[in-house]
Amino acid sequence: MSLIKSISGIRGTIGGKTGENLTPLDAVKFAAAYGTWLKKSLGKENLKVVVGRDARISGKMIQELTMNTLTGLGIDVIDLGLSTTPTVEIAVPLEKADGGIILTASHNPKEWNALKLLNSKGEFLDGEEGAKILSIAEDEDFNFTEVDDLGEISLRENYMDIHINEVLKLKLVEADKIKNAGFKVVVDGVNSTGGIVIPALLRKLGVEVVELYCEPNGHFPHNPEPLKEHLQDISDLVVKEKADMGFVVDPDVDRLAIIDENGQMFGEEYTLVACADYVLSKTSGDTVSNLSSSRALSDVTEKHNGKYRASAVGEVNVVKLMKDSNAVIGGEGNGGIIYPESHYGRDSLVGVALFLSLLAERKQKVSELRNEYPAYFMSKNKIQLTPDLDVDGILKAVEQRHRDEQVSTVDGVKIDFPENWVHLRKSNTEPIIRIYTEAKSQQEADDLAQKMIAEIKTIIA
Ligand code: MG
């Protein structure tokens, strides 16, 4: 059981002792801290906040506690009910609201939930803002409103349809070409809200949909992180149904994984690569992903004469660098597509629409498209340390040893070798260093990781 307070919100397990889990008292405390911070930072009364949730079992309970706490501070609430992270993100500016909260623990199993906090643009708070909210919660520095000024809750249950329409309005989304292509697609919505919104989007695009786990009851039929080892059922069904592809999203619909017509993974890293290939073929410009994402994005960007930049890990860091460099598309290698033409947040609806537009235009099978991209393989490892070791010192030593290579210290240590790369990051919660490598074969990626582990061991010894 645990409760993790971080700058992007508060995440924890349901049940158990207050302060050690996401209990009702903890949810109320953090909702109150967010509302208090919003009132202080905006310096005005009569605020409005959009609140939505994914379909997890605890969602309704946590959402009602959150909304009623905000009304207790005199804040009006727009209740989107069952929703997705990107839906709440687009609703905040469309409703001219002052902030937003999404109740979701993203790809984490069903016992988890979280409050994810947005600013008045519908974007994640930055580190400084998050730290202020944590300190307000710590001090319980709340001042609830008097009876005549309580906020009101208004229900808006059609926002996923509005979101779909916003996606269809995007210039690069070729609805007619997609309709003419006659696609058949299997969707795995892990029994969360992706099971509502992805089939609805596809049907609007004239796609024949086969639904797998699209009942939004919060009983996740498999580990909800869209990784190969959890996706056997959709792989089998794509083949059985003779479908053109499969789409899988995580419970709050900001990560998209694709299965090809043979039931093989397109590769989570390649969702962004393909969407970027399409966008860059229409709009020249630059791209951004985080330091742990595949080099394939950099290759595809250069092919289109753009410049690729890498940010620290974390959506808020990707978005900041995208804004600073005016990138036309970006995201994360875990299937997170950020397309500023729509909004600055990872959005699987946008990913689905761009990917289908690309396929419809190129008239290719998914496996054929995949074969056109450079093949890279990743290896994700970690090295266990003892708590007394100076992790920063170890990373510094690795940096020194490789100072003649191309090294970035924006987030841990990333070394870009000509043929492969390694990214070392320390964990903030346990004494480990995560070691991610990428190379042109799985063997080479695994070997590079083992070489780095051996190197770190000699530094420690
Ligand atoms: Mg997510």
Quick summary of this structure?
Helix content is 39%, strand content 22%. The chain is α/β, with parallel strands linked by helices. It has three domains: 3-157, 3-Layer(aba) Sandwich (Alpha-D-Glucose-1,6-Bisphosphate, Chain A, domain 3), CATH 3.40.120; 163-371, Alpha-D-Glucose-1,6-Bisphosphate, subunit A, domain 3 (Alpha-D-Glucose-1,6-Bisphosphate, Chain A, domain 3, 3-Layer(aba) Sandwich); 377-460, TATA-Binding Protein (2-Layer Sandwich).
Descriptive key words:
461 residues, alpha/beta, Alpha-D-Glucose-1,6-Bisphosphate, Chain A, domain 3, TATA-Binding Protein, five-stranded antiparallel sheet, 20 strands, 22% strand, binds magnesium ion
Chain-wise SSE layout:
Layout: E1 3-6, E2 9-13, H1 24-42, E3 48-53, H2 59-72, E4 76-82, H3 85-94, E5 99-103, E6 112-118, H4 127-139, E7 153-155, H5 159-168, H6 175-181, E8 184-188, H7 194-204, E9 208-212, H8 232-240, E10 245-249, E11 256-259, H9 268-282, E12 287-290, H10 296-303, E13 308-311, H11 315-325, E14 329-332, E15 336-338, H12 348-362, H13 366-372, E16 377-384, H14 391-401, E17 406-408, E18 413-416, E19 421-426, E20 432-439, H15 442-460
Parallel strand pairs: 3-4, 3-5, 4-7, 8-9, 8-10, 12-13, 12-14
Antiparallel strand pairs: 1-2, 2-6, 5-6, 10-11, 14-15, 16-20, 17-18, 18-19, 19-20
Helix pairs in contact: 1-2, 1-4, 6-12, 7-12, 9-10, 9-12
The structure holds magnesium ion.
